[in-house]
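Q: How do we represent a protein-ligand complex in a form that can be generated token by token?
A: Start from the inputs.
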Amino acid sequence: MSQPSMPELDTPTFRLAVAQFDQAAQLMDLAPNLRERLKLPQRSLMVALPVMMDDGRVEVFTGYRVQHDSSRGPSKGGIRYHPHVNLGEVAALAMWMTWKCALADLPYGGAKGGVAVAPKQLSTGELQRLTRRYAAEIFPLIGPDKDVPAPDVGTDAQVMAWIMDTYSQQVGFAVPGVVTGKPLSIGGSLGREEATGRGVVYVTLEALKHLEIDVQNTTVAVQGFGNVGSHTARIMHECGAKIVAVSDVHGGLHNPKGLDIPALLTRYKEAAQPLQSLKMGEPLTNEELLTLDCTVLVPAALSEQITGRNASRLRCRILAEGANGPTTLEADRIIQDKGIFVIPDILANSGGVIVSYFEWVQDAQRFFWKASDIQSRLQDLMTSAFARTLHYAATQKTSMRMAALMSGIDKVAQAHLHRGLYP
Ligand code: NAD
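Then emit the structure tokens for the protein with nicotinamide-adenine-dinucleotide bound:
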């Protein structure tokens, strides 16, 4: 594996993204100059964010916005608020966004942003001031035709609303298309909040069909009960699957007969307590959840959860990667040898950016669609991306992950070749 030539990017998540890219580029025989270019971000911005805390102190946070590629259109990608956010992680997530958008045939490049902060430890006022200062600092980079942020770990529709307002105040008029994942009142889209989870379900149903497994006989374990994990669990449950385990950062709940997901969701929201404290199943650790005997395992928390340490103990038939980068390279090899069917992250979790694209189109047209239109268009795009990836994997005799990456990279490479080099 060749090393990135910017030492400040050199983190485990960035190394994983580059190693995956290198593998795919090797198989595709990608031109060396494109390899060098696409391994690095196009632009990276690091910002210092002084924020007035409620007790009168000023605390300075560090934020980032990275644009990996804009050859196919404006760049697109979420904003993460998490204490471990760093430049390398943001750059890796931006690179995955490039391949994800290309694989789904969306006219976007990839970007990502983040602030190193524990958002739950801030008051609403502190969170708002931090968000507005971050939006002001990344203002030169973002815009509906330039780069369009969205929610990711630790951010939500309210954070997007503050970014939209800060941007709009700078230019003097409302610009809904500067972010996606906004509230409906300011140009958000129906179906955006659940979109990533719903997309995970659509491709999981396709994989079950491919493997001739009845959804009624399917058991599912979901790591992470935030936006992606909770909607995946809810919709899989509605489809007739049995959800045998779910977890949050503090640990999980298990019931081999199936958890009562609707009741669990209501109690989790009301109580605002760790899942385990609700006592609605047997307690289990996140590590135990990953190695449960189940049909479908959905990692929907953070990256690098399935590693060389636990991969050989996985007992699922399908791994549907809701999270970005949940599987290390070493684990990937082990999982392939075990014959687990992998729906790779850039395919499995692309429902979020697909409905973000729908939101951006609706904002530009000032014309809003029905929920049923959004669901059917999402299903259409996801099932065709799944079918194309499966076909590519079969014809090129490669894994689903390599097939997804190679299809995405190829479209980006074509765009670079057609546009040519400037100047
Ligand atoms: P979120 O903040 O809503 O939820 C994250 C969940 O993971 C929470 O339940 C949290 O308790 C849990 N968690 C955090 N650290 C954990 C750990 N160490 N072990 C186990 N669980 C842990 O975030 P989200 O938006 O649901 O994102 C989850 C993943 O999905 C991320 O990898 C994100 O990049 C990816 N993703 C999100 C979207 C989206 O639209 N939100 C789209 C594509 C991909």
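Residues 94 and 111 are 4 Å apart (CA to CA). The first helix runs from residue 12 to 28.
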